[in-house]
Amino acid sequence: MVLDKSERKQSRSKVIVRRRFKKNYYGYLFIAPFVIGFLVFGLYPIFNTLYLSFTDTTLLSKEANFVGLSNFQRLFADDVFTNAVKNTWLLWILNFIPQIGIAMLLSVWFTSARLKLRAVGIWRALFFLPNLLMPAAIAALFFSLFSFYGPVNQFMVRAGLLPEAKQFLQDPMVARGLVIFIQWWMWFGATIIILMAGMTSISISLYESAMVDGASGLDMFWRITLPLLKPILIYVFVTSLVGGMQMFDIPYLLTDGRGSPSGSIMTNNILMYLKFSSSKGHIGAASAVGVLVFIMTSVCALGIFYFLRERD
Amino acid sequence: MLKNYNLNTRFQRVFIYIFLTILLIITIVPIWLLIVNATRSTVEIQQGLSAMPSTHLIENYRILLGRGLNLWRGFMNSLFVAAATTIISVYFSLLTAYGIVVYDFPGKRLFSNFIVILVMIPMQLSIVGFYQYMSRLGLTDNYASLILPAIASAGSVFFGKQYLESIVIKDLIDAGRVDGASEIGIFHRIMMPLAIPGAVTIGIFAFIASWNNFFNAFILISSIEKYTLPMLVQTLRGDVYRTEYGAIYLGLAVTIVPIIVIYALFSRYIVSGIAMGSVKE
């Protein structure tokens, strides 16, 4: 009787297993909306953009002609495009270096068992705040702060730091510096959170045994923290790159929306928008910008991702 | 030697706190100026900086609304788009994540690796093709074009998958099956209630991303009555408000303060969400 019962139990669990196997096909039903949504709103627009980049389509004309690679040829021959790509890289790199630097420093301090800093959670939460604010509003805020009659000029003139008010936003270096500063300001807090998550997941015993061996704090950082943090660093690097290549709101709203002064803060996406919104609405050319930047970004991102990954 | 070490640590600590304080001032001052200046009159603002709020909030509000800017319509538009995006994003990303976590269907690994790659791919760059496609469907200048793509938000699915992996109990699902619940019923009635903390995190991020989204709305929406808040910010920078600093700051404060309030309420979810989204292996 006992045997009978356990047998029955076994066969019942077999049924469940078999049923579970069949049920596994339900997975497709669950992911179906995502897949359809992706095909319709993600993949198709990519192919459509690619297709448009080979045509001379405008917003006004209904007909479109296939023009081969001439949109791309024109872009490569155009200084405005090469300038935009260079600018975008420059603006991204110069904000990424201090961003990762400061974030690394603060993360090491915040997680240090020796320093035991107080209220780490509160510091971190406050440093992260700018990341959540609307970039468009932040750009407008800095536009206003640095305008001719704005508070920065007043403060500098009154404090005797400047002889007279300065048209800050007409100086290419200042405009670039501001974009870089704002990007840094918005992102270093987020990077701290991510790096700290990585650091706290490293086992303490590794540090303890290193300490027994007489390793210094710096040794431990280079030999333990940094190598084990590699996947996280790659993640930060790639997501920041992808975001940086699409920089738009801040440089667009900080000056006149054309990358002024003298194209110093013209980025890929601003150029794409300008082609798109030009009086003819040349969306073929705009698509070509999108396609080139898409290829450049994806190749760099996936390149970093796989190249750095497979070596472990 | 130990005493020396302690002294050293103490000095270092003082130095670090000073450094953190400077960094904190840099972080907070622009935001603080924005909020304080929203309550000060233009004359006061031009007279100099102040860290203290003043009493001209209502006056600024009158000027702000008196020049043809329909701030509250923009606010409601943003709220509607962000809320709809949030609901769609939370529901469909949990649905997809549940499908990946619970069922061992062929191609599952491929699919979840694909999601990771999608997170990294710069989708926004296909906006022109998206625009032209939406205009063929007659969906430009329509919120549907802003909301519906949230069905396939890879980042949310990725997070949802991380989250569900930590809470899904297969026995509970089997118990549901024994009780005769359908698969989708198990998802709705057993898993959804359990996944509320994860759903809140996904929802906050979806809401904030949509609330702050300027580029897509700027390209897809054209009629003024459908403008969202980030698009109105542009108007604030225009000639109408050239010298009305108080009103400009107030307008900007309206876009930022709701997010600060959300952050004050949910900072724990937000901070842990950022951390969890990145730690994979």
Task: List the main descriptive attributes of the protein structure presented here.
heterodimer, A: 312 residues, mainly alpha, MetI-like fold, 2 domains, 14 helices, B: 281 residues, globular
Oligomer: heterodimer
The chain-level mean pLDDT of chain A equals: 88
H-E order of chain B: HHHHHHHHHHHHHH
Q: What is the level-2 CATH architecture name of the largest domain in chain A?
A: Orthogonal Bundle
| Strand percentage of chain B | under 5%
Instruction: List segments of chain B where confidence is low: pLDDT < 50 over at least 5 consecutive residues.
Output: none
Largest sheet composition of chain A: none
pLDDT < 50 stretches of chain A: none
Please trace the helix and strand order of chain A, writing H or E for each element.
Answer: HHHHHHHHHHHHHH
End-to-end Cα distance of chain B, whole Å, is 41 Å
Shape of chain A: globular
Helix content of chain A: over 70%
The CATH superfamily of the largest domain in chain A turns out to be MetI-like
Fold-level CATH name of the largest domain in chain B = MetI-like fold
Q: What is the CATH C level class of the largest domain in chain A, in words?
A: Mainly Alpha
Structure report:
- The complex is a heterodimer of chains A (312) and B (281).
- By secondary structure, chain A is an all-alpha fold.
- Chain A has helices spanning 2-23, 26-52, 70-77, 79-111, 120-128, 135-145, 151-158, 172-200, 204-212, 217-228, 230-245, 249-254, 268-277, 283-309.
- Helix content of chain A is 73%, strand content 0%.
- The model of chain A has no long low-confidence stretch (mean pLDDT 88).
- Chain A has 14 helices and no strands.
- Chain B is an all-alpha fold and 281 residues long.
- Chain B is built from 14 helices and no strands.
- In chain B, helix 4 crosses helix 8 (154-167) and helix 5 packs across helix 8 (154-167).
- The radius of gyration of chain B is 24 Å and the shape is globular.
- At the A-B interface, helix 1, helix 2, helix 4, helix 5 and helix 6 of A face helix 1, helix 4, helix 5, helix 6 and helix 10 of B.
